[in-house]
Write a structure and sequence with these properties.
- With 279 residues, the chain is of the alpha+beta class.
- It is 43% helix and 18% strand.
- It has eight helices and ten strands.
- The strands form three sheets. It has a five-stranded mixed β-sheet with strand order 1-4-5-6-7. A three-stranded antiparallel β-sheet has the order 8-9-10, covered by helices on one side. A two-stranded antiparallel sheet has the order 2-3.
- α5 links the parallel β5 and β6.
- α6 runs antiparallel to α7.
């Protein structure tokens, strides 16, 4: 769902979840100009952004229905941290499962692409936003609901990291001082603050059913090739070992039947290759 004009105006009065990555990556100049000068990118004509807005509510409805969650609320008024009023967020939804509330952010991305864009990459990308939103909401469970291309939403839980959050708050305080005093930040300010961030995001290891989802065809083909060639590989490796055992200890090279085995003059190791000997 797209932000209202009032919600957009309010975002200039606090550091939001989508700002968290800029805080820790050092993009303070752009964030300062957004908060203080109102200079920000116009996303009205960004198709991928608008597509995510259109599918957000459907994404959440489908996610809750298929994962056993109860919807508590869609995004409403922005929330502020009870102690640090300069930290706020507008979560996409709050859901309930087994008596526990969970903060949900809905994402609609491109299809999975090998190791370049998958659950692990999404978790890494939105880790700062997840930590920020859990902190502000006071709800220490979080999940992304991600639509890859045209596939059903996938849940990606992200665990709360109190040490990372503690250090993040200090960095956010330092940035917000620039906003309150109207002091334009520079790279040196961030370089000093980033030294305090010691924790690295620790990704939660998961069990993944690879015979489901976008990559099931590639997985099936690779698994079939594995089983079809497993015995052949064992025979191949055994033959290599048997050939090397037959090489006399004083032979620099042994050849025959299209096989050449040479001995390293440095350490005596044997190397096998295909070809005809020049001897």
């Amino acid at each position: 769902m797209a932000l209202t004009a009032e919600q957009i105006k309010n975002r200039s009065t606090y550091i939001g979840g989508s700002d968290a990555k800029k805080i820790i990556s050092g993009d303070w100049t752009a964030l300062y100009e957004d908060k203080v000068l109102g200079i920000r990118e116009n996303l009205d004509d960004k198709f991928n952004v608008q597509l995510g807005n259109v599918t957000e509510e459907f994404n959440i409805d489908w996610f809750t229905k298929t994962n056993g969650y109860e919807l508590v609320e869609y995004a409403g008024d922005h929330r502020r941290h009870s102690e640090h009023n300069f930290l706020g967020c507008l979560p996409d939804a709050i859901v309930l499962k087994n008596g526990n509330q969970v903060v949900i952010d809905a994402k609609h991305t491109g299809p999975r692409w090998a190791d370049r864009w998958d659950e692990a990459k999404l978790e890494e990308t939105y880790y700062p936003q997840a930590q920020h939103n859990m902190l502000v909401c006071g709800i220490y469970r979080f999940s992304l609901s991600v639509i890859f291309g045209n596939q059903a939403p996938v849940e990606i839980p992200i665990e709360y990291d109190p040490q990372w959050v503690s250090e993040y708050i200090d960095m956010a305080k330092s940035f917000w001082w620039h906003v309150e005093t109207k002091t334009h930040p520079n790279n040196d300010d961030w370089e000093e603050e980033k030294k305090t961030i010691k924790s690295e995001p620790v990704l939660r290891l998961r069990k993944v059913a690879m015979d489901q989802g976008n990559r099931k065809v590639e997985w099936e083909e690779a698994a079939l090739a594995y089983f079809e060639n497993k015995d052949s590989y064992k025979i191949f490796e055994t033959a290599k070992k048997d050939l090397k055992k037959l090489v006399p200890d004083d032979a620099a090279e042994a050849s025959g039947n299209g096989i050449i085995i040479t001995r390293s003059p440095k350490n005596g190791s044997l190397r096998i290759k295909e070809g005809k000997s020049n001897a």
